[in-house]
């Protein structure tokens, strides 16, 4: 039961952050600027929430409550299952481009995507660069889940240095 208590706390934080992100996303829709897509703020707030969950896991590891390897495993498990809206999901790659999580597709997890290229764009590298420079937003092409034809997509990503992960989410245009 002792090991379960910190995990339940992290899950509770994740659920609260996800709910807050959905609330913020819906609140932005009516008064959004015509120059920006309201989904930009939604995906940014979702990644900030996911980052917060990973940060809490890292703090537990730093405090010696759990091992870092276990914090990473829990972080990947949580990101893999987190959803928002109708089809929002999260992804994570190491800074070197090795996939950690991609909408629960375990066939991609662990594979090196550093040189992944769609329509001449090395999108994993581009997403990592945006995350590390603080810009966060990336336009690229990627197939929707269950499809093979790439569609235009916009992502927001952040670099979570303690795990060396670039975490992101996005929407199809």
Q: Can you describe what's shown?
A:
The longest helix is centred in the N-terminal third of the chain and has 28 residues, at 4-31. It contains four helices and five strands. The protein is globular, with a radius of gyration of 16 Å. With 173 residues, it is α+β, with helices and mostly antiparallel strands. The model is unreliable at 19-33 (pLDDT under 50). A five-stranded antiparallel β-sheet has the order 2-1-5-4-3, sandwiched between helices. The chain has one domain (4-172): PAS domain (Beta-Lactamase, 2-Layer Sandwich). Helix 1 (4-31) runs antiparallel to helix 2 (38-62) and helix 2 (38-62) runs antiparallel to helix 3.
Task: Please supply descriptive tags for the structure shown above.
4 helices; alpha+beta; Beta-Lactamase; 173 residues
Summarize the structure.
With 173 residues, this protein is of the alpha+beta class. 45% of the residues lie in helices and 20% in strands.
User: What ranges have pLDDT less than 50 throughout 5 or more consecutive residues?
Assistant: 19-33
Number of DSSP-assigned strands: 5
The general outline is globular
Strand adjacency order, main sheet? 2-1-5-4-3
The percent of residues in helical segments reads 40-55%
Mind telling me the C-alpha Rg?
16 Å
Structural class from helices and strands? alpha+beta
CATH architecture, by name, is: 2-Layer Sandwich
Mean pLDDT: 86
Task: Work out the count of structural domains.
Answer: 1
H/E element order: HHHEEHEEE
Q: What about the largest sheet?
A: 5 strands, antiparallel
């Amino acid at each position: 039961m002792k090991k379960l208590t910190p995990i339940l706390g992290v899950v509770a934080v994740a659920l609260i952050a996800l709910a807050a992100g959905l609330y913020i996303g819906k609140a932005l829709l009516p008064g959004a600027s015509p120059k920006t897509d309201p989904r930009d703020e939604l995906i940014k707030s979702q990644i900030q929430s996911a980052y917060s969950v990973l940060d809490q896991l890292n703090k537990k590891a730093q405090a010696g409550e759990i091992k870092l390897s276990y914090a990473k495993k829990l972080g990947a498990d949580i990101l893999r299952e987190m959803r928002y809206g109708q089809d929002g999901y999260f992804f994570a790659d190491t800074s070197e481009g090795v996939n950690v999580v991609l909408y629960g597709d375990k066939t991609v997890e662990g594979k090196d995507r550093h040189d992944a290229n769609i329509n001449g764009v090395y999108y994993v590298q581009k997403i990592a660069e945006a995350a590390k420079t603080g810009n966060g937003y990336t336009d690229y092409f990627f197939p929707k889940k269950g499809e093979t034809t790439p569609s235009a997509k916009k992502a927001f990503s952040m670099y979570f240095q303690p795990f060396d992960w670039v975490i992101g989410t996005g929407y199809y245009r």
